[in-house]
Amino acid sequence: MGTRADRLPWPLVALAVLTSALVLVTGGVVVAGWVARPGDGPAGPTAGEATAGTPVVRDLGPGAAAFDFSGDWSLRPPGTSVFYTDAEGRISAALDGAAVYRDGFCDRAGAAHRPSNRAVAGFGRVSRLGARRTSRAVAQQWRAAIAFDSRTGTVHETSRVRTRDVELADGAAAVRSDFTLRIAEPSACEAARVRTSVVSLDTGGWTASLVLVRDVAVPDALGDAEAERLLASLRPA
After folding, report:
1. Long-range contacts of 102-108 (CB under 8 A, 24+ apart)
2. Superkingdom, according to UniProt (predicted)?
3. What is the pLDDT of residues 42-90, one digit of tens each?
4. What's the CA gap between 51 and 73, in Å, rounded?
5. Do the Cβ atoms of 195 and 143 come closer than 8 Å?
6. CA distances (Å), 64 to each of 76, 115, 128, 155, 205, in order?
7. How many domains does the chain have?
């Protein structure tokens, strides 16, 4: 992702050269596409069941981490990454172990063939930097990535990135960065505001980041309380 020097377990350059990386026209908060990672194996993100029966996504690669989700969420196929592309069609931001909320919600005329969802959550790139530097860098990367609208070729307005220390559900210290995207003239399947949150956690030698991108201020959006629970569930795997 981007031009950071720390090496990714599955470099985006490898994603870019895969055959038939499908770029999709999107509605709502849907990302630009998804594509299989090369060399998928046991170390990649997987879905399972937490002890309490709550679905959980685990990434067992470097910076091994997990998060929980519940409700109207579904998982992308194992070994796939969800991504945005820039004006040249290059991957500008991606998620591993992605779960999507209200997948296929938009069934308006002319939009039924387009993928749509109200939120997406997954693991951003791991880093050897500290949690604060990682959280801000990942957030800035996603801010640039989602501001570009590949459908219209325009750049939407975004707020500044706000970073703060947070405590996760298990009591661990982490760093969180947030920003909001504003779409002046949203389409029928878009929300006027999209919020992105990045929670970064030192897992011992590596820093893992959970990214949540969600529509807000629409009737069928992911609720604030559920979003907070998902973000707070980040933990070492």
Report:
1. 102/72, 102/220, 102/222, 103/74, 105/28, 105/189, 105/220, 106/27, 106/28, 106/188, 106/189, 108/188, 108/189
2. Bacteria
3. 344 554 444 444 667 777 678 889 999 888 898 887 777 788 888 888 8
4. 19
5. no
6. 19, 29, 13, 34, 10
7. 1
Indicate whether 130 belongs to any domain. Answer: yes
Q: Shortest CA distance to 61 belongs to which of 229, 205, 196, 174?
A: 205
- CATH, residue 79: 3.40.1000.10
Task: Report the 10 Å Cβ neighbour count for 152.
Answer: 11
**pTM of this structure:** 0.79
Domain contains 3: no
Find the domain containing 158 and state its range. Answer: 12-236
